Amino acid sequence: MSSQSSSPPYPTATNTNPSTCTPTSHNLPISEAYDLWSTIYDHDSNPLQAIDDEEFPSLLAQFATHLSDLPTPHAIDVGCGTGRNTVKLLSRLTWRITGLEGSSAMLDIARRKCAERIKDMDARSEDHVKNVTFHHFDLQTGSLPSIVDRAEGIICTLVMEHFPLEPFFSLLRNFTNPGAVVLLTNMHPEMGAITGAGFKDPETGEKVLVQSYKHTIEATLDVARMYGFEIVGEVREADVTREVAGRFGPRMGKWVGKRIWFGMILRRRVELGEGEDALVAASKGDAA
Hints:
Layout: H1 30-37, H2 47-65, E1 74-78, E2 96-101, H3 104-119, H4 125-128, E3 132-136, E4 151-157, H5 165-175, E5 176-187, H6 189-192, E6 198-200, E7 207-209, H7 217-226, E8 229-239, H8 242-248, H9 250-253, E9 259-268, H10 276-286
């Protein structure tokens, strides 16, 4: 059975500190914006996505070491989008992988992308495909779908900026078993002070802004600890050098000298009354 927390109560979403989550202006609700963005998301030369793609493999390797002793760990890609990073999990043949996404259009692309990648894998892919599932899910509801088990690992890349910190970490706590690890990346506050998530409408060329929150690293770590998560290792930050800008093209050039990305690995504490046996049992598929 999936472990339920017996630790003291954690803060509720209503305790959000407005100084850490003042939203920029936006034109469309998150899911509607990402439905529109889906048609160009994977090839619009977004600087933040480019840096995230470059930094992700080393973070994933660190993340995977924490799951290596579990026979069939469950990993959830929270806000999986077009499956940009979900496909990078498919080589982990013993993992059960779940993608959650609020945009139906993004989710359709993720399903197709992963199905195509699995077809290109070896003969084990037929069994492996049974371990990869996708679900339409509005992250703003805060509750894990009843058909999805809690996870031993969470991947959540470039999603946190769309939510106040307390509801976001409350959601991660609801999604995880004690001892679970989280791979988290986000827009750096230096970039967030200048811009937020957005894109050009592929039909009209107009700028579409999506609700974004400017989260500092310090506030992120403070709220993470409030919800029982501790940093593993150090926070990574990526700045844009002229060499980086030269590799990624003109859209990256405006960010030379600025930090635009940060990433980290977090672990959910095992509280009093929460045994490590719950983590092992869940990884064997016994979680509800």
